[in-house]
Amino acid sequence: MTSDADEVPGLVANLFRHSHARVVATLVARLGPERLDLVEDVTQEALLAALRTWPFRGVPADPVAWLFQAARNRALDRLRHETTARRLAARLAAEPAGSAEADVPDEVLVLLATCAALPLPRDTVVPLALSVVAGLSAREIARALLLEESTVAQRLVRAKRRLRAEPALVVLRRDDASLATALPAALDVVYLIFNEGFAPSRGDDPIRLDLIADAHRLAEALAAHPATAGPAPHALAALTAFLAARLPARAEGGGFALLPDQDRRRWDQRLIQRGFQHLQAAIGGGTLTRFHLEAEIAAIHAAAPAWEATDWDRIVAAYDKLLRVEASPVVALNRAVALAERDGAGAGLAALEPLFQRGDLERSPWYHATRARLLRRAGQLEPARAAWSRALELTEAGPARENLIRERDRPGPVSP
Amino acid sequence: MPSFLLLLHEDPAQYAELSPAEMQSVVAEYSTWTQRMADAGKLSAGVKLRDGVGRRVGRDAAGRLMDGPFTETKDVVGGYFVVLAPDLEGALAIARDCPHVANGWIEVREIEIG
Q1: Which residue of B has its CA nearest to A9?
Q2: Which residue in chain A has the smallest CA separation from B47?
Q3: What would the mean pLDDT of B96-114 be, rounded to a whole number?
Q4: Which of A323, B2, B54, B67 has its CA 20 to 30 A from that of A390?
Q5: Out of A52, A56, A57, whose CB is closest to B12?
Q6: Contacts of A51 in chain B (CB under 8 A)
Q7: Is A51 on the interface with B (CB under 8 A)?
């Protein structure tokens, strides 16, 4: 969102994204989950109608009611064309013409559970949930999952086609057992929403606070809901709290300060405490998820008075454990950064070498920027320059680009 | 002061892939602009034309009254603004400043009065 959004009366921050979730949740609850496909279509159409009408006629006095009404009218039109759906149309028409009142985040948990229970491959369920629940575009989802945009778009189209062909597949999952079954996918989705908030793939905002706040709220809701409470959601809530606590220190004069350069006095102590509470609740039961280990790493950073005074031994050890739970190239990348702090740039570069050979993170700008930093520290200036260029090629958003350019042009060796 | 019609042409399909947040930033851009124009006393009206495919009415070569064909779907007038400017150059300056030039094109016509 641009800062302009705040200056337009009635156009509150995140109006479209939050309305999307609320209208979808409300209409699905009224029309039945087998209508998810129709509901998604009419909600999108209502937002598009707003996009094309409000510039001429101004933002209406109650924009949420306007959007709900527009979606509801479109749903009615479509249902009236289906003789088998007459009964549903009557039910919807009898509703008072108020606005969406879905109980967020409980209704959102139900939507998550509904998506997660669909008999679709996991590599499709997560993008679908990110689109339905978080209102992310194919491009944003592609970045979050390190996939090509066309791949994500294809999966979404295939999933929606399948649901259209077999509407009976969609069953609204409200019961505790379904919420519990949906937990792993729900955790993934929340984690990805959070990540997209931290490094937005587009737009001029260095951080999308809206996404981070949503993800933190959802993580806490999962940790608090009797059907889903347990070590893993507590660990995720700890992680989101620790990372959200750094936000006041992250934004810096239009760009953003990375962890090594942050003024730690500006960290939100209340959120850090909340993180430690969740971490406490996450321990025990013998469960060790990647969220536990990531939260542990974040906790070590939260406890360190400065980047140089960080307990790198414990961080490297936590990354070693994390690699065994989650052998992802992104984890290997972060481990290499910690290793470079402990044992020097050469050790970090050696740890990156297998990733470089396999090309796993070829599309990740963070990977190329990290490699550039370590190469420069190791005095390999020519390869460092090539790595900066590749990182810049892959970076779309304004402040992230400016940060990279500033760092590339900074004189002397810098720490990663 | 002379009035000018700003006809906003666009391909509505271009917005189909936007996420809700992206749509909101488009609305915010236009709204900020119309607010600024209104505050400066330059905007006299904004009218949205109903979406949907338009029809043409006229006579064919044989002189029969025809209803059709359909109008373009890729170049649609979504709506128009009426703006006030001292002359055509002033109206063109207003149009060039409108966020719509990033999403389509604007036809500028002076409204005949008197």
Answers
A1: B31
A2: A56
A3: 92
A4: A323
A5: A52
A6: 15, 18, 23, 26-27
A7: yes
Spatial separation of the C-alpha atoms in residues A219 and B41, rounded to whole Å: 49
Q: Where are the alpha helices (DSSP H) in B1-114?
A: 20-39, 88-97
Residue A52 near chain B (CB below 8 Å): yes
Higher pLDDT, B53 or A53: A53
Residues A26-35 have pLDDT tens digits of: 888 888 877 8
Q: Please give the model's pTM, rounded to 2 decimal places.
A: 0.60
CA distance A291 to A318: 11
pLDDT (0 to 100) of residue B70: 63
- By DSSP bridging, strand B3-10 and strand B76-84 are antiparallel
What end-to-end distance do the CA atoms of chain B give, in Å? 13
Nearest to A51 among B15, B32, B100 (CB): B15
A50 touches chain B (CB under 8 A): yes
Hey, what are A416's tokens? 């990663």
> Residues, chain A, total?
416
A4 and B18 within 8 Å at the Cβ level: the answer is no
Query: Best interface-test mutation with A: which of B5, B11, B18, B24 has the largest number of A CBs within 10 A?
Result: B24
The C-alpha atoms of residue A350 and residue A356 are separated, in whole angstroms, by: 10
Residue type present at position A173: R
CA distance A136 to A163: 19
Indicate if the pLDDT at residue A141 is higher than 70: yes
Mean pLDDT, chain A, whole residue set: 81
Cα distance between residue B24 and residue B7, in whole Å? 22
Mean pLDDT, residues B77-91 taken together: 94
Q: Is A136 on the interface with B (CB under 8 A)?
A: yes
The ipTM is: 0.80
- Contact criterion met (CB < 8 Å) for B23 and A54: no
For residue B18, give both structure tokens. Answer: 């936007």
Distance from CA of B78 to the nearest CA of A (A): 7
Q: Other C-beta atoms within 10 Å of A291: how many?
A: 28
Q: Which helix (H) or strand (E) holds B44?
A: strand B43-48
- What the block records as the tokens of A401 is 């680009």
CA distance A129 to chain B (A): 14
Q: Does A49 contact B at CB distance below 8 Å?
A: yes
Distance CA A197, CA A79 (A): 37
Which residues, 6+ apart, have CB-to-CB distance to A187 below 8 Å? A222, A232, A233, A236, A289, A291
